[in-house]
Amino acid sequence: MRMNRVYGKLGGWRAFVLLVGILANGLAGAGAQAQNIAIRGATILTVTRGTIQNGTVLIQNGKITAVGTNVNIPAGTRIVDGTGKYIMPGIIDAHSHLGMDTGLNEGAESVTPEVKIEVRADALNIYRALAGGTTTLNVLHGSANVVGGQAALVKLKWGTTPDEMLIDDAPRIVKFALGENPKRSNSTPQAGQERRFPATRMGVEQTLRWWFTEAQKYKKGWTDYNQAVKTDKTALMPRRDLRLEALSDIIDGKIWVHAHSYREDEIMMLMKVAEDFGFRIKTFQHVLEGYKVADEIAKHGAGASTFADMWAYKMEAWDAIPHNATLMARRGVNVSMNSDSDERVRRLYQEAAIAIKYGGATEEEALRMITINPAWQMGIDQRTGSIEVGKDGDVAIFNGHPFAPASRVEMTIIEGKVYFDRDQAMTLEKLLRTLVTTTDGVLP
Amino acid sequence: MKARSDERRATSWAAPLLILAALLPASLNAQASQGTAGTYFLRGGTVVTMTGQRLAGANVLIQNGKIAGVGANVQAPAGATTIDAAGKFVYPGMIDSQTDMGLSEIGSVAATQDVTELGTYNPHMKALTAVNPSSELIAVSRVNGVTTVITAPSGGMISGQAALIHLDGWTQDEMAVKPVAGYIINYPRSGGGGGRGGRGGGGGEPEGDAAARTAQQIAELREYLTRAKDYDRVRDGGSRTLDIQLEGLRPLFSGEAPAIVMADNKEQIEGAFKLADDFGIKIVISGGDEGYKVASELARRGVPVILGSIQSAPAADVPYDAVFANPGVLHRAGVKIAFSTGDGSNARHVPYHAALATAYGLPLDAAMQALTINPAQIWGVADRVGTIEIGKIADVFVTSGDPLDIRSIVSEVFIDGKRIKFDDRHTRLYEKYNARPKKN
User: Fold this and answer.
1) How far apart are CA A395 and CA A410, in angstroms?
2) Phi, psi (5° rounding) for residue A379?
């Protein structure tokens, strides 16, 4: 029920489609203009370097070039008045399916690491995520497969192209999934179809072990060949297999694993499997029982990307608690709050604040959970996720503290370009004012 | 034979497991306790009465389940339990005006679902019948200051009777504030689209077919209501022939309970107006995504709107902030609004739904009204709940700050004058694993 509510709103007031479309598209066009921009006189939540009152952020050629209270703004720079406003790093969501259209899963088989995601650059929900201050996504496959496909790490450069949205030199990430979804507990096969293997958590483990064993053989085949061919030009080249090649890259750490998980036992299982094959899990996704094995996760070196407060929607979410994020963080786990939803991605700042309420995270810890921490999980923390000189000019400007009620996003900037500006955006109030004569007189 | 030996093994394991369970701290096994009755004196807080007053340094006296005193001069009687509220804020309990609390435990586990009965017309189904007082969701929700919720069935055309319940009580009768708060009517809608209001349009169905089907459904609904109204008239005339379905609807025609019409788009809301006019019934709109299109008419008619989850994505063809800004538009037009999560597991966050609306035009005090006094008025219980006034049921909570601010921490909750212990499923798991010895 919840998911239907979140996703399923289409249709309705067709007369306004055009108007909204024109305004939104017009803005994207304007946003594509490269410019140097300075936000002046704001409270700056740098995340990694504390809070600066009455400060200025200068972005030049897409990069942050100055942050502080005494910043020289060169002539020709666009100046945004930040008086009374708060600036934070552009929000990063380590778990999204935005812009994938349909077909989240390559679900016919349970191991498919060779497939890759392409994100539509014109998806309306990109614009709406920008309106919530989000600039960067980890777009993952669904969770039907034990080993899903490769993610797309994108910045929300709405109205550009799928290729332009991809983050240069970002790590390759593959989605794994454990528990109810890959064992297909909550779906009934169609008449005449058999259940797909695996159907238990035991089967999930052995699926992983079987395939990684195959990948080891495959790797050895190539290693042996590469050795042999140095002296024997007639050595037989192994047959290239894209699936086993991807699995070999996982073993070699060339592809990072983000693993959908719920229960503590499956979290423990996956860490052991990875360690046995010589690699590490980069990040557990959802990981709603992560708080039960936080020390083990920290020791393994994995991050955790979780929901702020989602529980009771299925059996493996029955022990989920809203204190999860803070409990894991307190034991040394890098924790992020994710959306996994085109709705929640518009208000991840609210989700982060939940960590303060439950378990007592500090405001800075909560901010980290939607900025620098997910950046680390995605391997892009050197270039984004905090307001520091040399980093990408990715910021969100709020009219108040991001965690306060009545606060909203006024402007979202990626690499110095304005992709959302509430002053320019079509809002409900503007629409009602514009259309007062054509509606039945509704004007506040 | 193998299965049998497995069974035996399972049995032989059971005894040590039981002993182990007995050794665990009692609080890990126990369900949350019910509230404790008593005389309570909340001292020196800022009391926000929701009658327009904000009393700094005021006391609140709770006695015999009622609010017995409010103000700086109120004294603690002998034997009262004093709770220091200095530096804190005291508010009337918040109300979530649509959930499935107590009817649904674990979403994907069918055995725990009592929300949707089979069939199309179920006006005789009573939510209160199936409210599980031991639901873990109840205890988890109330510790954030949500003391009262509408719990409602769903599905079909007429889903049944929603109940207004307290989130505390040993039985569902003790929980009931208003056993029949309203009748859920899912107004048919044509065209695609979600929202939670109304019966979904046929996916992929040609537009003409969908419109015809919707018209047919509306005609059927109206025919059913005509029959029910006729039945009501005949019963008023002295007939003793009972129809258990139609009998269930009689409070709708007597005006004792409104129709809660699930309606998101303009056409549905206007259809609900017509039901009100033609059948002489009171209506409450639930959902109301396109309320802004008919705000002046809603205000003129005095029809209140229970906003559907503000944590919802807007339709594709409306501005990005439509769901967030709609409550403010309705409020300014003079429509009485209330908030809802639609979901028991999310009910504790109903103030944060309201907070999203405050960022887009709804004044902060109007948001608090929409969580307290407004729903009390909409559900016809404003003489008993919704404000902090002498003589009202003592539904009260103490918080460190603005309830709309996620960072505020609720420290005390009273429901029906009973003090709530903060020992729900989540706090118990938190305490257990927070205390797990560090593993190196």
Assistant:
1) 11
2) 70, 30
Question: What ipTM was assigned to the predicted interfaces of this complex?
Answer: 0.91
The lowest-confidence range among A23-27, A263-267, B279-283, B364-368 is: A23-27
Q: What's the N-to-C CA distance of chain A in angstroms? A: 33
pTM of the model: 0.92
Residue B440 confidence class, pLDDT cut points 50, 70, 90: confident
Residue to mutate among B294, B321, B368, B402, with most A CBs inside 10 A, is B321
Q: What is the dihedral of CA B69, B71, B77, B80, to 10 degrees?
A: 80
Backbone angles phi, psi at B310, to 5 degrees: -75, -15
Chain A residues closer than 8 Å to B196 by CB: 5
Q: In this complex, do B406 and A16 lie within 8 Å of one another by their Cβ atoms?
A: no
Angle at B152 between CA B146 and CA B154, to 5 degrees: 140
**CA B252/CA B228 separation, integer angstroms:** 10
- Measured CA to CA, the distance from residue B409 to residue B419 in angstroms comes to 17
Cβ neighbours for A424, distance < 8 A, ≥ 6 positions apart: A23, A26, A27, A30
Say which residues have a Cβ less than 8 Å from residue B258's Cβ, sequence separation at least 6: B182, B183, B252, B281, B282, B283, B284
> Which of B191, B292, B349 is facing A11, going by the closest CB pair?
B191
Any CB–CB contact under 8 A between B204 and chain A? no
- pLDDT tens digits along B104-162: 999 999 999 999 999 999 999 999 999 999 999 999 999 999 999 999 999 999 999 99
Best residue of B28, B293, B309, B320 to probe chain A, by most A CBs closer than 10 Å: B320
The residue of chain A with its CA nearest to that of B328 is A444
Residue A397 DSSP code: E
Chain B window 330-359: which residues touch A at a Cβ cutoff of 8 Å? 332-333, 342-346, 349, 352, 355-356, 358-359
Rounded to an integer, the average pLDDT of A209-231 is 98
The model's pLDDT over A344-382, given as tens digits with 9 standing for 90+, comes to: 999 999 999 999 999 999 999 999 999 999 999 999 999
The residue written with tokens 């008086």 in the block is A83
**Percent of chain B, pLDDT > 70?**
90
Q: From edge to edge, which strands make up the β-sheet containing A147-150?
A: A147-150, A172-177, A255-261, A283-286, A303-306, A335-337
Query: In 3D, which of A314, A261, A253, A302 has the Cα closest to residue A285?
Result: A261
Tokens of B227: 């029959």
**In Å, how far are A220, A225, A237, A248 from A229, measured between CA atoms?**
14, 6, 9, 20
- Chain B residue numbers touching A16 (CB-CB < 8 A): 317-318
Neighbours of B123 (CB within 10 A): 27
Residues 6+ apart with CB under 8 A from A363: A356, A403, B407
**Higher local confidence (pLDDT), B209 or A275:** A275
CA distance A6 to chain B (A): 5
